[in-house]
Amino acid sequence: MAGLAYFLGANELGARIIRSGPGALQLQWESIQRFSPTVLVAVPSFIPRLIKYAIENGIDPNKTSVKKIVCIGEAVRDEKLKPNYLAKRITDQWKVQLFSTYASTEMATAFTECEAGNGVHLQPELMFAEVLDEDGNQVKNGESGEVVVTPLGVEGTPVLRFRTGDICHYYTEPCSCGRNTPRLGPVVGRKQQMVKLKGTSLYPNAIIDELNAIAEVANFVVELHSDELGLDEVVVKALLRGENAEYKVLEKLSGKLRVKPRLILASNEEINKLKFDENQRKPQILIDKR
């Protein structure tokens, strides 16, 4: 649905659009070379695969027409609004400008960054948004809280103060682009996904970001479980590479997160079977089994 929503919006603006799913990489590049699009709308974790195929097949991404990528479904910035590891991995090889987005079905709209990359701009004529703390109070500039939305102009299924469960930072100071609308940072985590490991509270996204940045990790999924005492347990199933990789990965996670999740070594096939569930429309890096 997200891809269709962007397709319909771009069509309304009068843009020429080439629809293409996450299928064969060869067909993706054939479309890019044939139609010369300047902007891609894509799940960002798909882009490194696109780059890898190009390099292996003698295609220089930087000599193509693509200049910008609108990233949907996954974050490309950290809590400080700086490019995260995934964004750096993309732009180190493909000199494109990445734009973050924020959307949900219940919002009936989507928001995106401007060229300054200082968080997604909310549009008050489309939706009234609040970012609330644990007591239900609006957070201050720079603080994080749960995003609560009231879409405007929705007639079929109107929603009033819908609690998204998304935890985001909220910014009210004017953006360097000149706009003064409030902005949201990337989703830090889902309220119901927060886990407590040995007294340390954290969101799984923090674990995922660290795993993405560790060179010894070739592929992975993160599972959330409850142990026999009902306590949270985080299990990382990963394909590793290099000498002493298991030790290095656990030490790096412990150094950054102050806790060590349980690490299970798995094959690429086993991980992809979990990640690409036929009942899901996009890869599942986090699997909550609690």
Q: How are the elements arranged and paired?
A:
Blueprint: H1 2-12, H2 25-35, E1 39-42, H3 47-56, E2 68-71, H4 85-91, E3 97-99, E4 101-104, E5 109-112, E6 120-121, E7 127-132, E8 144-151, E9 162-171, E10 183-184, E11 189-190, E12 195-197, E13 200-202, H5 204-213, E14 217-226, E15 232-240, H6 245-257, E16 262-265, H7 268-275, E17 286-288
Parallel strand pairs: 1-2, 2-3, 14-17, 15-16
Antiparallel strand pairs: 4-5, 6-10, 7-8, 8-9, 9-10, 9-11, 12-13, 14-15
Q: What can you see in these coordinates?
A:
The chain is α/β, with parallel strands linked by helices and 290 residues long. It has 3 domains: 2-99, no CATH class; 102-190, Roll (Luciferase, domain 3), CATH 2.30.38; 194-288, ANL, C-terminal domain (GMP Synthetase, Chain A, domain 3, 2-Layer Sandwich). It is 24% helix and 28% strand. It contains 7 helices and 17 strands. It has helices at 2-12, 25-35, 47-56, 85-91, 204-213, 245-257, 268-275; strands at 39-42, 68-71, 97-99, 101-104, 109-112, 120-121, 127-132, 144-151, 162-171, 183-184, 189-190, 195-197, 200-202, 217-226, 232-240, 262-265, 286-288. The strands form 5 sheets. Strands 6, 7, 8, 9, 10 and 11 form a 6-stranded antiparallel sheet that branches. A hairpin with a 2-residue loop joins β12 and β13. α5 (204-213) packs across α6. The longest helix has 13 residues, at 245-257. The radius of gyration is 20 Å and the shape is globular.
